[in-house]
Each structure stands twice: as C-alpha cells, then as structure tokens.
Amino acid sequence: MNNVEMTSDVNSKINLVKSIANKTRGPYTPEKYGNVIIPMAIIRRFDCILADKNSQIAALLEKFKNNKQVTDVQIEQAVQKQFGVPFFNKKCVTLEQLVGDSDNINANFLEFISAYSPSVQAILKDLKFREEVEFMIKKGILFEVVKAFSEVDFHPSTTSPMAMGYIFEEIIRTYKANAEAGDHYTPREVIELCVDLMMSENMDELEKPGKIIRIYDGCCGTGGMLTTMKRKLKDILGSDERVRLYGQDVNPEAYAICCAEMLMLGEDVRNIREGNTLTEDKFPGEKFDLLITNPPFGVEWKTEKAAVEKELRQPNNRFVAGTPRISDGQLLFLQNLLAKAEDDARIAIILNGSPLFSGDAGSGESEIRRYVLENHLLEAIVALPDQMFYNTGIFTYIWILSKQPGSKRNHKIQLIDATKFYIDQKPKSLGNKRKFIDDDSRKQIVSIYAAFEQNEFSKLFDADDFGYTKVTVERPLYDDKGEKVIKKGSVQVDPSKRDTESIPLKQDVEEYIKREVLPYVPDAFLDRSKDKIGYEIPFTRYFYKYVAPRKSSVIMQEIVENEASVDGVLKAVFAK
C-alpha cells in the first residue's frame, strides 16, 4: 500500500471509529469516550487477527481439553508455534458472530472477553475494561458499540501494522486528556529515516552471527518506533530472529496498545513496562545496542524534579551532565539514552529546536550540550521539514549519537539541512501533517549523511566550533571630576556599564577584545574570574542564504500599480 492509499485508508478508519464514539454519548461524556474506544479498538484488532485461525485453534484446544496439567500460558506457546499468533480466545468466535445473537449479547460479550488467553487478559485488566463493559450493559448501549466495531475492518490483510499504529495513536490523541500537549507520535517514515541513518555506519558488531540486538525506547508510546525498527532490521539483516524489543511509557493507554502490538509481533510483552522514565527507570543498569526515542517537546518536568535530583546525588546516575530548565525535559531523555547505551551502541533521538540553543553559558542546557560535544558523542543533526507531525507543524531535528564514532568522522559533527526533502502528504493531510518523506527523499538524506562531505545540504564542524567563552567586560567608575574611583588600590567598576561578550573558543580572548571592544571603549577591561564556557548549535545560521532585496524602483512600480488598482475599485463602488 502506497502513501496515498494508506493515508486515505487511515483517515477513513479513524473517522469510522470516531463516529462510534458518538454512540456512547449520554452515558459517557466526551472525556470518557476513550475508556471504551481504546480497548474496543484493541479487541477488534485481536478479533480480526484471529478470525481466520479460530477453527484451527478450536481443534487444538479440543486436544488439550482433558489435560488439566497444561496451562493457558503453555497453550499460548503452542498456538504461536503452530499458527504464528501468541494469544487466543477460548470461545473461538468473532464479534460478528456475537452480534448475530443480539438477545444474549451482554452475557456472551462478558464471557468473550474473559475467554482471552493470559497475555490479552493482562492488557484488558490494565485498561479496567470489564468495569466499562458492565457499565455499558447497565446503560443499555453495549450491543450498539459491539455491533459498530464488528463492522470496522482491522484485518491484517487490509490494515498493515503501520496503518494500525497510526489509527491507535490518533485514537489516543483524540480521546485521552493525559496525552500531553508535547506528545507527538512519530510518523513511520521519520522512524525509517532514523533507522537508516543509525544503520548506515558501524554495523560490524551488530552483524556478527549470534549477536542479540537489544533495542530500547524510553518513550515508546504505542510501540511505533520499536515495531518499525524491527521491520527495518529484518530488511537490512535478512532476519529479525536476533532482535529483542524493550520499551517504557508513562501513558497507560499507549502502554496497553504497545503491549498489544508486541503480542502481534511475537515479542516478549514483559519487556514493555509502564512508568515515568525520568522517575521510575524500569531497566536499571541495563544496556542496549540501538536506542531511539521521541520525547515530549517542551513539557515541564516539575513533578519529576524531586526524583531526578535524588538520583543526581547517587553515583553512576543517568543525568551526569546536569539538568535543563524546568519547562523542558527533552535533554533529560537524551541523557537517559546515553546512560543506557552499550559502548558500541547507536542512538537516535528526535527533538525540537529548543535543545540546540536554549540556555545561556553555564545554564543546564548549555552544560548538557557541552558534555555531549566535548565527549564527542554527537555524530550528526538532521533538520526535518516542518508539518511532519499530526498535532504540530514545528521544525524537528534528528540527533544521531554514538560513544564510538567511526574513524571516518574523526570527531567531526555533521549538520544536514533536509527541510526540502519531502513530497506532499496525499490525498490530504493527517491533522497538521502535510508533508511526507518518501523513499527517494529518505535515500537522498541518508546518502548525504554517508558521504560526509561539505555541500549545500551538509556542513562539517569541530565540537569547539559551537563553543564560546562568555566574558564580563567592565568599565571604571568615575567621580564628579571625571577621575577613576580607586579604593584600597583597586579601580572601582561601574555596574551600570557592565557588559558581556561571547567569544568563539577558537579565538583568543585578549586579541578579540583588542580588535572588537577597545577601539570603541578604550577604558574597558575584563574580569576573567567571571568567565563561563557555553555551547549552542545555531543550526539555521549555518544554512542561511542571503537574498538581495528587490530594487526600490521595482517596489515603487508595484506600489503605483496597486494604488491604481485600488483607485479603480473605489471609483466603481462609489459610481454605484
């Protein structure tokens, strides 16, 4: 299915699910719709996956019927081995069949959800879905909801995992208030770009026979990054047998859907854990080979502050470079990835523009950038087109990091302007998503990264190109006679005339002051005790292209023409 077909299909199915939500109006207020819609969407997906396997599973269950020693978990394993699905429903019926017996739908549906195997039961329990079913029965709306979902086509043959991921994410975004304003579910083509960038270099260790490849996402959401990485690795390596997925997310609905996605992939659901990554690290001390995440943009971490600061006091904590301002925790998630990376690991993280330059010299953000740059952990930053995400149109950036960059890069940092590499999202936008990185665009971006050359779209820098010394420039305090005020042998400074200069690290401070300051204020002097080292990455500055202003004669001619046009319109109006 191409992008046009998938977008159209996703939009139509999202709209269908949203129309079902309206059937709960009355008993449910809009902020509660998600309590029904999210678990029912999961159940329908499971239902569609099992639809053409139920008769075979029923025969297998019959064989185990009289063997009391065989557990449901063991049966799940047998079902996966024979049919490739790691779950089952003992009733072996579909929602369509349940709807066919409308008189008994209440009892039958309760029995149906109770008949799912342990892996699915754990997901439904986390969502507290049985309580919602009993409430729908009480309010007399269960049949209408089940019937409506039985008409939604979530079959794997018509709804790919990628399309299903988009649908799940849009459902969460629409119906759950606890989906943070800064949560932006990542388009699958952006994830594919991240993977291709990560895998285009230093793959020797991962390609070794028998090497188990552990992939981690600390903000896994519904699992889109993990599932896309697994699919891409299968394409690159020829098999995904050595791939293991690990993830954590604070949103309970996203966590539940991620578990469902892992089930469908045959992954170990125990490796997906619920909790706040900043305060409840569910993988303490564990290391991973490939790490990827898209943390919330511009979301404050005030509620996590006490736990983060407590961890800061511990040896070998995850936030060794310090903490950013309380209003934006993106750089905390970056440090979490670095702390969990094996020495030969590859890392990709998607951030907005703020982590590039926010914070003055000595601030938390600047110190974190300093740590990353001076320890040569950053390989490249890729600027993406705007309007790539569903609920924001802002520009975003992929940071590629590693603890052992390849010798080819020689500690150089590559900035790539990929803002022009896209096609229009067709047949129409998905929310704010109006641009799509197609296969050709993705290949061009990756080739620019791999070539590692200076050109229109790629710039190479040393780490200290981004550093500067912020020096304090003082001026003497003068008395009424215009003479310097001296106390205890020291010239007193005039605080009202204090200024600062940000001097690139590659320039000599004294020479800079002689050249740029003293010609204009000859009595100025430096207080070097207040020096601060800062780092920022002014990305757009490096790719700025000067466009000469139009000639004044051309502008004047346009003004005259516009005035004549307006004058003609006014005469026509008043003539009437």
Number of E-state strands = 16
The percent range for strand residues is 15-25%
Q: Which oligomeric form is depicted? A: single chain
Find the structural class using helix and strand composition.
Answer: alpha/beta
Give the end-to-end Cα distance, rounded to a whole number of Å. 58 Å
Uncertain runs with pLDDT below 50, 5 residues or more?
177-182
State the strand order across the main sheet: 3-2-1-4-5-7-6-8-11
Summed up, the domain count is 3
Described by the principal axes of the CA atoms, the overall outline is globular
Q: Gyration radius, to the nearest Å?
A: 30 Å
Our count of helices gives: 21
CATH class of the largest domain: Alpha Beta
Helix percentage range: 40-55%
CATH topology title of the largest domain: Rossmann fold
> Which architecture of the largest domain does the CATH hierarchy give at level 2?
3-Layer(aba) Sandwich
Q: Please, what is the CATH homologous superfamily of the largest domain?
A: Vaccinia Virus protein VP39
Instruction: Describe the largest sheet.
Output: 9 strands, mixed
* Mean pLDDT across residues: 89
